[in-house]
Amino acid sequence: MRHLLDHIHEVPVHLIPCVEGRTDGMEGWQQASRWGSVIPAAWSFMLAARARGLGTAWTTFHLAYEREAAELLGIPHDEVMQAALIPVAHTIGTDFKPGRRRPLETIVHWDRW
Ligand SMILES: Cc1cc2nc3c(=O)[nH]c(=O)nc-3n(C[C@H](O)[C@H](O)[C@H](O)COP(=O)(O)O)c2cc1C
After folding, report:
1. DSSP 8-class letter at 7
2. pLDDT over threshold 90, residue 103
3. Which of 73, 39, 36, 74 is nearest to 58 (CA)?
4. What percent of the chain has pLDDT over 70?
5. Residue 95 pLDDT > 90
6. CATH top class, domain 2-106
7. Is 8 in the pocket of ligand 1 (CB under 6 A)?
8. What are the beta bridge partners of residue 54?
């Protein structure tokens, strides 16, 4: 995250997945339905980019300034929500390794919570 923060201005492409219809103030199930319409598509894009040698990262930090970004980019803020900002660039090398993860049993619940 620190590296991305220091270098985000050097990234050649920033993808902002958007979804029509704002859910501000709506019930959780309505928000979940809307976000569920855009997040899988963005994730598919990230996997497709990876298959072509491009690295991506899911970020949401710019959403604190969603309205300003909308004005800058001509996105109709009152009708369209921005879901993320995904920097896209060729990776430096390919020696990736799995990220650190908490043990599975601390986050998986079987049959009941
Ligand atoms: C919902 C969500 C929001 C995130 N927002 C940010 C963000 O705003 N800035 C950031 O540097 N990383 C953010 N991340 C983490 C990055 O996607 C990424 O994991 C991180 O930059 C570290 O890179 P790495 O996973 O390749 O090690 C977010 C992750 C998730 C799941």
Report:
1. H
2. yes
3. 39
4. 100
5. no
6. alpha beta
7. no
8. 90
